[in-house]
Amino acid sequence: MRNLGLRKEFTKYVSLNIFGMIGSSANILADTYFVANRLGSDGLASLNIAIAVFGLINGLGLMLGIGGATRYSICNAEKKKYEADSTFTLTLLSAVITGILLSLAGLFFSKGLAQLLGADYEILTMCSSYLKIVLMFSPFFIFNHILAAFVRNDGNPKLAMYAMLFGSLSNIVLDYMFMYLFELGITGAALSTGLAGVIGIVISSFHILTKKNKFSLVYIKIQLKNIIDILSLGISAFINEFSTGIVLIVFNLLILECAGNTGVAAFGIIANLALVMHAVFMGISNGSQPLISKSYGQQKYNDIKIIYNNARLLSILLGVFAVFIAILFSEELVSVFNSEQNIELQIIAENGLRLYFIGFLFAGVNIFTSSLLCSIEQTAVSFKMSFFRGFIGIVAIVCIFAYLFGITGIWIAFPAAELITVFMSIKYKRKAGVLQSNTAVERFSV
Fold it and tell me: Among 100, 134, 302, 322, who pairs with 360 as Cys (CB 3.0-4.6 Å)?
């Protein structure tokens, strides 16, 4: 009966978070669709270069949100009320400082950043305009992630899902209004995405306004060790998200050499479709995190094993489904974003989509495993695993494969990196199990 109840709770939290994260990823997908149809391949290339910054913004928001909410859940499970509220307060203060710095970067350095990311003369103006507005709205993106994480860990996953979902739906409506009715071009796409984050915050705030929240602001003395603790617990979420931006930058630069702006536009289609699958796996990870942290705080290690096994199976099944869709419907998926019916773009994107999506056979398990290790305070092991798949591994592999196999090598670099990470995760999980006695990792066999 206990196992059945836990599985129902797992289904509730994970399903709500998958829907919410899909909705959140629709922000970029909607921008991609409207920009492609309104501004053509140059607009699509501009957007694909600019959205790399979302990896940083969302990564920081998730690191603070997931890290703070994980510590909050553990403290609550251990009946440490003040420590839980202190974590919430410190997380918000950290978000304020981070958001201000990113806004200043957008205000003064957007053009230089666009050039650094690979924008050439033809698309520099559109790219820098999008970057400036998105970075100015970064405090809202970060607060949206934090508030959703704490609301979810405070026992209200449904509201957290509504916040992400309705924020994204509003983005679609605003995209149409700003780009078609008001003819604001790529500026309208950036504004609609920024306002979607504001709407998400408003919806999540109902948890506080209706006084359902157990967390509250308290007076704290800021200590570096507490900030590091929050960041370390969220480092896996940061790397998993930030790596998306790093991959975009490196891939864009390599593809620019192989296939020019048309190739970059083709990768823009692939990358944005991939963001949806990435969001699905993050939904599994984020939905499981409150349950794992709570079980860890209560020392219910068998529950962690049950959650892990369910999440692993779900990740594998969804990965197989993603590959199946990419292989059978690549033409239809690419055509949606190819408004100019560019034959070269269509061919490059179709071939790339089929090869690139093979990586999702392994990515879901990797994302969840690194998140699980953070949730049970195995941060060093999680960092090594995430750092390889998000930075060292993927960058090294794509550079080598691009040199050896050209653009085909670029497409297969992602599956290769994820497959290697699977073997690394097996090694690290076994190693973590003997780090010390009475740890959660030792208590269950994965």
Answer: 322
* Other Cβ atoms closer than 10 A to 403: 10
The residue written with tokens 């930075």 in the block is 391
Q: What angle do CA 41, 264, 46 make, to 5 degrees?
A: 55
Q: Interhelix angle for 52-77 vs 360-375, to 10°?
A: 40
C-beta of residue 30 within 8 angstroms of C-beta of residue 175: yes
Query: How many Å apart are CA 117 and CA 113, to the nearest integer?
Result: 6
Dist CA 329 CA 354 (whole Å): 9
Q: How far is CA 93 from CA 105, 222, 227, 311, 368, in A?
A: 19, 9, 10, 33, 28
**pTM of the complete model:** 0.72
Neighbours of 258 (CB within 10 A): 15
How far apart (Å, rounded) are the C-alpha atoms in residues 51 and 32? 10
Q: Which of 274, 365, 359 is nearest to 315 (CA)?
A: 365
DSSP state of 341: -
Q: Are 228 and 91 in contact (CB under 8 A)?
A: no
List of residues 6+ apart from 440 with CB closer than 8 A: 296, 299, 301, 304, 376
Identify the CA nearest to 49 among candidates 34, 22, 31.
31
How far CA 166 is from CA of 27, 30, 204, 274, 334, in Å, comes to: 11, 13, 11, 21, 26
Can you say whether residue 235 is alpha, beta or left, with left for phi > 0 and alpha for psi between -120 and 50 degrees?
A: alpha
